[in-house]
Amino acid sequence: EAHLPRPHSQGWPQLRKGASWFNSALTLNESRGRLGGMNAAVRAVVRMGIYVGAKVYFIYEGYQGMVDGGKNIVEANWESVSSILQVGGTIIGSARCKAFRTREGRLKAAHNLVQRGITNLCVIGGDGSLTGLNEEQVEQHAHLNVVGMVGSIDNDFCGTDMTIGTDSALHRIIEVVDAIMTTAQSHQRTFVLEVMGRHCGYLALVSALACGADWVFLPESPPEEGWQENMCIKLSENRARKKRLNIIIVAEGAIDTQNKPITSEQIKELVVKQLGYDTRVTILGHVQRGGTPSAFDRILASRMGVEAVVALLQATPETPACVVSLSGNQAVRLPLVECVHMTQEVQKAMDERRFKDADVHLPCACGMCGADTACPPTLQSNCNVAVINVGAPAAGMNAAVRSAVRVGIADGHKMLAIYDGFEGFAKGQIKEIGWGDVGGWTGQGGSILGTKRTLPGKSLEDIATQMRKHSINALLIIGGFEAYLGLLELSAAREKYEELCVPMVQVPATVSNNVPGSDFSIGADTALNTITDTCDRIKQSASGTKRRVFIIETMGGYCGYLANMGGLAAGADAAYIFEEPFDIRDLQVCRRHGKMKTTIQRGLVLRNESCSENYTTDFIYQLYSEEGKGVFDCRKNVLGHMQQGGAPSPFDRNFGTKISARAMQWISTKLKEASGKGRRFMSDDSICVLGISKRNLLFRPVAQLRKETDFEHRIPKEQWWLKLRPLMKILAKYEASYEVSDSHQLEPVHHRGHEEPAAI
C-alpha cells in the first residue's frame, strides 16, 4: 500500500493568511446525495484552504472520480467557488462507486492522490460517503489525513445534532404544506404527505410540529394496535369542531408493530373508506433535495468547512480520521469510524426492528404532533397560567403561544391569554384561551395576541390588581429585550406587591437575538432567511449590469447578529456592526477591495442599523458612489420591517414549540412543588429567562443575568457569534485571524439514554 507524503504540521494556536505548506494539498470530494448547503461547504473548504497557503483540488463525481483520476481531479481557485452559495446541489457532482469498495479500486484512488501530492482528504456526504472511509482504509493509509462533513437531508448520522441539508429540506416541505393547507381549507380536504426518511423520521416529526399536523407516522415509533380507529376518531372530532382540513405526515419508512409498511396510499384508502373524506396524496420525493439552501444550512456548512480545514492543519500521522459535527451551537470533532459504525448499527437495527439492542431513543408517537386534536388534561391543577407577548413582533411567537397553551391544558392548568402586552395587562385585556383557539397558529407570522414595547413600571399596581382579580399563579412572557426589562421590573416590585410572587419565565423572541441568557431567539432565523433571500435577488440583479456595489441595512438595534450572520450566509464582502468599531480606513479598505478586477465585478456590504452614529448608510453610500466613479456605481437598500414579517421558518416554528413547552414544564414543576403550601415565590430562581447557552438549555435567574447585560446598548456583554466574525472576512478574502480553541481535541461519542433529552 502506498504511504502518502504529508505536511509538516504543528498545533496551530492561530491561523493566519500566508501559512506555507510544503508538497501538500487539500482535496474535496462528495459522493452521495444532492442537497442544499453542500456548495457552501465546498466554498468554505476551498477558500479556507487557499487562505492558509494550500493547494485545493476538486474531485468530480465523488469516489468514482477519485478512482478514475485524470480530468476528474482538478485544482480549484478562489473564483471557481464564487456565486455558488445560493445554488442547490453540488457543483462537483456526486456518484456512487462500487469500485472504491474493493482493494483494487482504493489502490487506484491512492495512486491518483499520490501523483498530485494530495495528503489531505475532505469528504462531504451522508452515511454512504463516510462509510467509504472505512476502518481498513484509514489504517492502511494512515498518512492520508481524513476529515468528514455530514450532508444528509434525513439528519440520520450519529454524533451531530444537525446535518447539512436538513434545514433546507424542511423549508421545501413546509413551503409545500403551507401551499396545500390553503387549497385543503377551501375544499375541506384531507391531505396525506409522504416525506423522505427510510430509517429516520426526523423530517416527518419536525415538519409535523412545524405545520400542526393531525397525525404523524415515524419508522422509529410504530403506532399502537388499533391506530386506524384512533386516527379516524381524531380526524372526525376535528371536523366536528368545524376544522376544514386535515394534514397527515408519513415518513417513507413508516411501519406498524408487525413490521409491515404503512404507506400513504394505504392511509388514503383508510380515510376514504372509514370517513368518506375527500383525500389526496402528495409524495414530495426529490423536491426535498432541491431549491435554494436556507440561511441555517449556509452558515452551518461554512462553519463546518472552515473547521474541517483547521482539523486537517492540526492533524498528525497519529491523528484518527474525524468528522466535524454540530453540538448545540458548537462545532466539535468526533472519531469518524466510531460514528459510522454507530450509524450502521442503528440502521441495521431499524431494518431488523431490534430497537432495544441498538439503544435507539424512540420519540413519543402522539407527542405534540396530534396538534389539533382535543387532548383532555390528565389532571386538574386548579392553577391559572397567563401567557403574554412583549416587544416587537417576531415570527414564531404564535407557535410558542400555541405550544404553551396546549402543554398547559394537558398539565391541567387554566390558560389565560393577555392581549397587547403589559399595556393590555394593566387594562385587564385577559381572556381564557382553549385548545381549539390556537389551532392553525403555528404557521402564522406576527403576534395574534398583539404585542407592544410598553414596560410595566408605570402600571405595576394595575398589573398586580389584574393578577389578583384573575388569580394568576404563573406568568409566561414571550418577547425580546423589552420582555427582559419587564421581567426585571416585576422582580424588583415583588416586595411591594405579593401578587407578583409567582413563577415567571421568559422565552426569548426577537429578530435582534439580543436577549441575555440565550444564544438564540425565536424569530432570528426567519429574519436571517429574509435577509439572505433579499441579498440573493440583489446579487442576481447585478449579474447583468456588473460593476455595482450594494449597501444593505439590517435591523438589530445595537446587536450585529443579523448583519454578521446574514453576511456569512449571503457571501457579503463586509458587514459593519456596533460590536466591532470601524473608521474611515476600514471603509477605504473595503472600497479598494480587488473584486472589481475579477470576473465577479459585484460588491455586497451589510450594515447594522445602529453600528455607528456617523457612518450611516447614506454616508457609506455617498462615499462609495464618489470614490467608485469610473470603476463601479452604488445602490442602497434598507430592509426595514420586512425582517419582522412573513411566515416563520421551520427552525423558528420548531424552536418556538419546543422551548415554550419546556417553559411550561418548568412552571408546572414549580406549581406542583408549592401545591397546598400557600408558598410565595420570592427566590431568584423563580423568575428566569429560558435559553440555549452553548450546548445546554438553561433557566437563568434575571438577577444573575443583570451582571451580564449592557443596558445602554441593549445587548449581552458577551455574544457567542462574534467568534464567527473572522469566518466571513476570511471567506471574503480579507486579512483576519481565526482563533483556534481547545476544541481541536476529538470528543467521545455519547450514547444517549432513553431518559436523557435531546438538544433543541
UniProtKB/TrEMBL annotation:
<dbReference type="GO" id="GO:0061621">
    <property type="term" value="P:canonical glycolysis"/>
</dbReference>
<keyword id="KW-0479">Metal-binding</keyword>
<dbReference type="GO" id="GO:0006002">
    <property type="term" value="P:fructose 6-phosphate metabolic process"/>
</dbReference>
<keyword id="KW-0324">Glycolysis</keyword>
<dbReference type="GO" id="GO:0003872">
    <property type="term" value="F:6-phosphofructokinase activity"/>
</dbReference>
<dbReference type="InterPro" id="IPR022953">
    <property type="entry name" value="ATP_PFK"/>
</dbReference>
<dbReference type="Pfam" id="PF00365">
    <property type="entry name" value="PFK"/>
</dbReference>
<dbReference type="InterPro" id="IPR015912">
    <property type="entry name" value="Phosphofructokinase_CS"/>
</dbReference>
<keyword id="KW-0547">Nucleotide-binding</keyword>
<keyword id="KW-0021">Allosteric enzyme</keyword>
<keyword id="KW-0418">Kinase</keyword>
<dbReference type="InterPro" id="IPR000023">
    <property type="entry name" value="Phosphofructokinase_dom"/>
</dbReference>
<comment type="similarity">
    <text>Belongs to the phosphofructokinase type A (PFKA) family. ATP-dependent PFK group I subfamily. Eukaryotic two domain clade "E" sub-subfamily.</text>
</comment>
<feature type="domain" description="Phosphofructokinase">
    <location>
        <begin position="32"/>
        <end position="311"/>
    </location>
</feature>
<keyword id="KW-0963">Cytoplasm</keyword>
<dbReference type="GO" id="GO:0046872">
    <property type="term" value="F:metal ion binding"/>
</dbReference>
<dbReference type="GO" id="GO:0048029">
    <property type="term" value="F:monosaccharide binding"/>
</dbReference>
<dbReference type="GO" id="GO:0016208">
    <property type="term" value="F:AMP binding"/>
</dbReference>
<dbReference type="GO" id="GO:0005524">
    <property type="term" value="F:ATP binding"/>
</dbReference>
<protein>
    <recommendedName>
        <fullName>6-phosphofructokinase</fullName>
        <ecNumber>2.7.1.11</ecNumber>
    </recommendedName>
</protein>
<keyword id="KW-0808">Transferase</keyword>
<feature type="domain" description="Phosphofructokinase">
    <location>
        <begin position="384"/>
        <end position="667"/>
    </location>
</feature>
<dbReference type="InterPro" id="IPR035966">
    <property type="entry name" value="PKF_sf"/>
</dbReference>
<dbReference type="GO" id="GO:0070095">
    <property type="term" value="F:fructose-6-phosphate binding"/>
</dbReference>
<keyword id="KW-0067">ATP-binding</keyword>
<dbReference type="GO" id="GO:0016020">
    <property type="term" value="C:membrane"/>
</dbReference>
<dbReference type="GO" id="GO:0042802">
    <property type="term" value="F:identical protein binding"/>
</dbReference>
<dbReference type="InterPro" id="IPR009161">
    <property type="entry name" value="6-Pfructokinase_euk"/>
</dbReference>
<dbReference type="GO" id="GO:0030388">
    <property type="term" value="P:fructose 1,6-bisphosphate metabolic process"/>
</dbReference>
<dbReference type="GO" id="GO:0005945">
    <property type="term" value="C:6-phosphofructokinase complex"/>
</dbReference>
<keyword id="KW-0460">Magnesium</keyword>
<comment type="pathway">
    <text>Carbohydrate degradation; glycolysis; D-glyceraldehyde 3-phosphate and glycerone phosphate from D-glucose: step 3/4.</text>
</comment>
